[in-house]
Amino acid sequence: KLFFTDYGNAAKVERCDMDGMNRTWIVDSKIEQPTALALDLVNKYVYWVDIYLDSVEVVDYQGRKRHTIIKGRQIRHLCGLAVFESYLYTVNSDNLNILRVNRYNGTDVQSLARLDNAKEIHVYQKRTQTAVRSHACEVDPYGMPGGCSHICLLSSNYKARTCRCRTGFILGSDGRSCK
């Protein structure tokens, strides 16, 4: 799945399949300017920062179990969000501090460091990487991902795929080659 935020005409948090199909709103009320987004892949939770409401909230992948982690002045101007173990990590765009917040109760807000020009944060750790199983976009014997001549996108599950073409090309009737 692909998760993303939008705060154009109607602010929301959405998800869709990697090929863009099955687009679903998972949060569309009591939300103003969702910016940063992070996933708990193990427990299937979506965390986001709303910079207008000065809040960090969480919801499950289906849009249920929503609650506020932390709200208020101490978390103003946040950008970037990452989740690892019991904490959320984020960047304050005003003072460029890296903040750590307990994701279960919003307590223990700590400033860990200051980095010039920091706007995004990611956690790279072996335990955060899910095991890769065989999937529909694996390279075939001819070197084509999922048998697609240009781009292979996973669809509704890891066994299904959709082929797409680069700009200027059209997908052939076989659903795999680009002309």
UniProtKB/TrEMBL annotation:
One of its GO terms (molecular function) is Wnt receptor activity. SUPFAM superfamilies: YWTD domain (SSF63825). GO terms for cellular component: plasma membrane. Keywords: Lipoprotein, Receptor. One of its GO terms (biological process) is canonical Wnt signaling pathway. LDL-receptor class B repeats lie at residues 1-43, 44-87. InterPro entries: 6-blade_b-propeller_TolB-like, Cueball_EGF_LRP_Nidogen, LDLR_classB_rpt. Coiled coil: none annotated. PANTHER family: EGF-LIKE DOMAIN-CONTAINING PROTEIN, VITELLOGENIN RECEPTOR-LIKE PROTEIN-RELATED-RELATED. This is Low-density lipoprotein receptor-related protein 1B. It comes from Spheniscus mendiculus. The lineage of its organism: Eukaryota, Metazoa, Chordata, Craniata, Vertebrata.
